[in-house]
Each structure stands twice: as structure tokens, then as C-alpha cells.
Design a protein that fits this description.
Blueprint (H helix, E strand, L loop, with lengths): L9 H15 L2 H4 L12 E6 L3 H11 L7 E7 L15 E5 L6 H13 L8 E7 L2 H4 L9 H14 L3 H10 L7 H6 L3 E7 L22 H10 L6 H9 L16 E6 L1 H14 L3 E9 L3 H18 L7 E7 L16 H13 L5 E7 L11 E4 L3 H7 L4 H6 L3 H8 L2 E2 L10 E7 L1
Parallel strand pairs: 1-2, 1-4, 2-3, 4-5, 5-6, 7-8
Antiparallel strand pairs: 8-12, 9-10, 9-12, 10-11
Helix pairs in contact: 1-11, 7-9, 9-10, 12-13, 13-16
């Protein structure tokens, strides 16, 4: 694609890079090479995630029209692709809640498990999995209620736990995650098509790995729960202590012959953006696709590099774009009332404070699913005068950051990135432009 001029239109340039990132991860662009021929028996399609609506659309278009195809897939409210609104497809698509699960998600999970009954070795199950599937497909383990799951999920989200830690807990408190869905599909063959939103692209972590073996243990889950002071019922604590809530492990016969394919990843997304920059004559440098840690700490590292480039031309010559991906965290003090924000806007506000108006440095951060946390924005952007404009609007940027209320600041400055649902999800996208 033709990019706007970075020198003349830095914001439009960064926004175009975000669009390139999202386009690289669209299921319709990447799914075809991974599909097998139809099986002797029937093909059942199940799954969940923020990208699952677009995955359903792509699969229905690519699968032979004369071959049996049916199933049930869950996606987030508002994430049904517009083209599917009035178009009949062979796979039922339902909407459930994210990031905190709801009763619709529990009902969908129960129906999905029921659809696996009676499968034979002649049948094929195609599981469409993407980020967000953990919340979209809740099925509490015996001894837990949906209300318990909702509370535990909220506490995990505010605890600062990594995505791997959260999903370890979710797998052991679920009746469908951590390989249990694949176990229910046996003896049918299972093909899992994954769009990765996790650092390292670990299939066991994406959507809490419903169709892959789980290497984590009850002991680890209980340790995470206790470390972050998450309250659980006594019966669940006992189940974790005695191993009754253990998940299917690598080597279990239920996974024999099953296949897992990563069809879109953060690394591929960042490389597509870097290639596009190169075509426009701007050097792009990918720091990493799997960054984890506190958003404000990651921002300090990016700011230090950007300042060095701007002032000294090291470690990169300018003009250039510094790219990174991964999933950062925001730790909210227990008992406090957080403001409106997400990990992307928190990163950006911390970046703006660290740069302190550094000339020639612009930045954009956004979640490729279109939602940064729970508000209506994917992220925002930073300009050399962000802090000046925020203070002119009567805001104290440092106090706003400490209150985890970055959304409010960027709304006041008019710098929110609001693309709407993108129908995919390869995690955070960060781009710092140094002119």
C-alpha cells in the first residue's frame, strides 16, 4: 500500500501502519493453505475468540459447498463481521461477553460440548481459536458458579498477572479449557487453527488451550491464585490441592493425530509492517513481538531508545520506526477504583511523560482487536505536544497515569484511536516514529 508521508503526516502515517498490522492477520488472507480435504465423515466446526467471526466467514467461503459442514462458534458482542449479518452460513455464530464472561458464553460452551457427542474416527473437528476465547467460552468446573468465575476473572485482570498466569488458572477452573474440549472430541481428528495473541505464540496459552495438552499443573494454578490473593471456594482449593481438577497432559492418547496450526502471529504482523515501511523508504526496527511487563515500564524502555535516536542517531539512524508487540499489564492496587484506560493508553501516557515533549517523536499503540481493555478505543497516539494539550485541558498527566485513567486524557486531547471491531486479534501493536 502507499503510505502517507511520515514527515508531513506523522499521525496518518502511524494510523496506516496500524491498518497494515490488522490486514496481515485477517483470516480470509491466511487460512486457505492450512485446510485439509473434507473427511470421510462429517466436519464439525467449533471454537471461540475475537477473530472467530471472521474465521467462520473465511472457512465457510473456502470449504467445498457440497461437503457437509456444521457447528457452533462464539465471538465477542459486536464482532460478527458485517458481511455475515444478512448472509446464511453453515456454522452458527453466537455472541458472548469479554473480558468478563456471561451466561450466554456458558450456554454456548455447554452446547459446544454437546455437539461433540457421537463423533467417530471418520469425522473431522475444525476448532477456530483466537484471543479472548477464555472469557467467551466459560464453563465452570464442578464446585464453581458463573458468578465465581466472573469475580475471579475480574480480580485476575486487575492483579497484574501475566496472560500465561491468568490462563493457567482459567484452565484448571474450567470444564472445557486446557485440552478438555479435544478430549470430548475423541476419537475424531481435531484440526486447531490459531490466531495468536500471546507472547511466544504458545498454543497452550491462546484462549486457555481448549484443544491442546496442558503442561501446567494444579500446583502452579494454586500458587498463582495465592500470590495474587484471589479468593476461591474451599472445594476448589481442595480440588487443586488433591489434583482432582488436573487437565489432560502431553502424551495423552486423546490428542493422537490432532494437528495445530498457527495461521497468524504477532511476529508476522510486525514483519508485514516493517516491510511496508521499507517500501516507503523508512527503516523499521522490530524490538520484539513478545514483550511482557508493566505498561509504564515498557514505555520507559521505548522512550529511552527514541530519545537516543532523536538526539544521537543511535542505536538507529533517523528517520525510523521502532516497532514492538506482546501483551503488557496494568496492575491496579487492590481496593482502589481504576479510571478508564487500558494497557495501550497507559503505555502511551507513560511514554509521553518520559519523552517530555521530545521534538520529532510520535507514537501509536493499539490492540489489534480494536479494543484496549474495555472502552471503545483500540489505543491512541502521542505527539510532541501531547502533555501541553493535556494540561491546557485542565488535566495533570502524572495524576492521570497514577489513576490508570489514560483514556480520559487522550479523549480530552482528541487522540484516541477508534477503528471499531477489526475481526482479528494478534495482540498489541506499538510504533514509535522518530523524524
Amino acid at each position: 500500500m502507499t503510505l502517507p508521508s511520515a514527515a508531513d503526516q506523522p499521525i496518518a502515517f502511524l494510523r496506516a501502519l496500524f491498518d497494515v498490522a490488522v490486514a496481515r492477520a485477517q483470516p480470509s488472507e491466511v487460512m486457505a493453505p492450512f485446510l485439509p480435504p473434507p473427511p470421510k465423515g462429517r466436519t464439525l466446526v467449533i471454537g471461540a475468540g475475537k477473530a472467530s467471526g471472521a474465521m467462520v466467514e473465511a472457512l465457510d467461503a473456502l470449504w467445498p459447498q457440497d461437503a457437509p459442514l456444521s457447528g457452533l462458534v462464539a465471538t465477542r458482542y459486536g464482532y460478527v463481521p458485517p458481511a455475515l449479518g444478512g448472509k446464511p452460513v453453515r456454522i452458527e455464530l453466537v455472541e458472548t461477553a469479554h473480558p468478563v464472561p456471561d451466561a450466554a458464553g456458558e450456554a454456548a460452551a455447554r452446547r459446544m460440548l454437546a455437539l461433540t457427542h457421537g463423533l467417530t474416527a471418520d469425522d473431522l473437528v475444525i476448532c477456530l481459536i483466537s484471543g479472548g476465547g477464555s472469557s467467551l467460552l466459560p464453563l465452570p468446573a464442578e464446585g464453581l458458579t458463573l458468578a465465581d468465575k466472573q469475580r475471579i476473572n475480574r480480580e485476575l485482570l486487575m492483579s497484574g498477572a501475566t496472560i500465561g498466569e491468568m490462563n493457567c488458572v482459567r484452565k484448571h477452573l474450567s470444564a472445557i479449557k486446557g485440552g478438555r474440549l479435544a478430549a470430548a472430541c475423541a476419537p475424531a481428528q481435531v484440526l486447531t487453527l490459531l490466531i495468536s495473541d500471546v507472547p511466544g505464540d504458545d498454543p497452550t496459552t491462546i484462549a486457555s488451550g481448549p484443544t491442546v495438552p496442558d503442561p501446567t499443573t494444579c500446583v502452579q494454578a494454586l500458587s498463582i491464585i495465592d500470590r495474587h490473593a484471589i479468593g476461591i471456594p474451599a472445594s476448589i482449593r481442595a480440588g487443586l490441592q488433591n489434583g482432582a481438577l488436573e487437565t489432560p497432559k502431553p502424551g495423552d492418547a486423546v490428542f493422537n493425530g490432532n494437528r495445530v496450526e498457527l495461521i497468524a502471529t504477532p511476529r508476522q504482523m510486525l514483519q508485514a509492517v516493517a516491510d511496508t515501511c521499507a517500501q516507503a523508504g523508512i527503516a523499521a526496527h522490530v524490538l520484539a513481538d513478545d514483550m511482557e511487563g508493566e505498561s509504564r515500564d515498557i514505555a520507559l524502555a521505548h522512550a529511552a531508545i527514541a530519545r537516543s535516536v532523536a538526539r544521537h542517531g543511535t542505536p538507529f539512524a533517523k528517520p525510523c520506526v521502532i516497532l514492538s508487540g506482546g501483551e503488557t499489564t496494568v496492575t491496579v492496587t487492590k481496593g482502589s477504583t481504576p479510571g478508564k484506560g487500558g494497557r495501550g493508553t497507559e503505555f502511551l501516557l507513560a511514554l509521553a511523560l518520559a519523552l517530555d515533549g521530545e521534538a520529532g517523536v510520535w507514537a501509536l499503540a493499539g490492540d489489534t482487536d480494536g479494543i484496549d481493555g474495555s472502552e471503545d478505543n483500540a489505543g491512541a497516539w502521542v505527539t510532541p505536544d501531547t502533555l501541553i494539550r493535556a494540561r491546557a485541558a485542565g488535566l495533570n498527566p502524572r495524576a492521570v497515569l497514577d489513576g490508570h485513567d489514560a483514556y480520559t486524557l487522550f479523549a480530552a486531547t482528541g487522540d484516541l484511536l477508534v477503528p471499531g471491531p477489526t475481526y482479528t486479534n494478534v495482540n498489541d501493536f506499538r510504533a514509535v516514529l522518530v523524524l
